[in-house]
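Need tokens for this chain, all 354 residues.
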Amino acid sequence: MILVTGGAGFIGANFVLDWLATEGTPVVNLDKLTYAGNAGNLESLRNDGRHHFVHADINERERVGALLRQHRPRAIVHFAAESHVDRSIHGPGEFVHTNVVGTLSLLEEARAYWSGLAGAERDRFRFLHVSTDEVYGSLGADDPAFSETTPYAPNSPYAASKAGSDHLVRAYHHTYGLPTVTTNCSNNYGPLQFPEKLIPLMILNALAGKPLPVYGDGKNVRDWLYVGDHCAGIRAALARGRPGETYNIGGNSEKTNLEVVHTLCALLDELQPAGAPHAKLITFVKDRPGHDRRYAINATKIRDELGWGPQERFETGLRRTVRWYLDNKGWTDNVTSGAYRHWIDANYRERGTA
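Here are the structure tokens for all 354 residues:
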């Protein structure tokens, strides 16, 4: 048994589905079901007795503590977080409450639970904290990629809140001995991603014939990681990672935002042709405040120590992703509710397209 927080979100749901398909052991899945947490992501597990879903907030400490004592998990895999930079710019308080205070609440309950374990149960317990490369700040065009020893330099409220949670996890290992492992990943993409993020937003806008809003000059660089590869990396870190260590997980696929959008347009021209090339919908809009120029991940440590590496090339992973969105219109219709449309309108109107 493991306990997963945020297991109805994009990466969390993919992890739960992959875990049950590969490991087969039960999962207690705790999720607050905010706008990006979608119970529909787990529909295929409706009648699976290995999956126990709990609708709760990680800040509900008594509830979390009771779940730990009841189910006695051998690990906690902590995904639950607010994760969208633009939303953090508009409302940073919620990011601090969930990402910093929520992680603190979870760490306290995990420490209390772990302290009550003995023998093999205590030795094998792990607290795996899933974080982001954004805590490291921004790279220049010729700078070496982020490693696990790169100093933290977060540039958005989101990144700062994740950096704070990373520091708390580190402190709980060094102060209390809690066996923690932290992973810092690059930009994920794949099925089930909420369409405020670049790739699903561009897919859905293109299919609707709407503008494809690209921030600034479109030359911001990200390292793209297929979500299935990320899930495999987390499983490796959980199984073989050393307590107290951090492992960077990257896709070895640096692309500018404009390259990503053009590749998407070409795929859609092939798979869902329209009256004109989809690239004609590309529209440059006002840049995001403090937009980091480049992220890149050096994943040598996890490769050498744990034997993990990405299996999906960006081109094949993106094709799989586009096909998933084309084949799952019911899912996209469900998540793009009135609240979603209100957010998209509010965020992009000020940038010149909505």
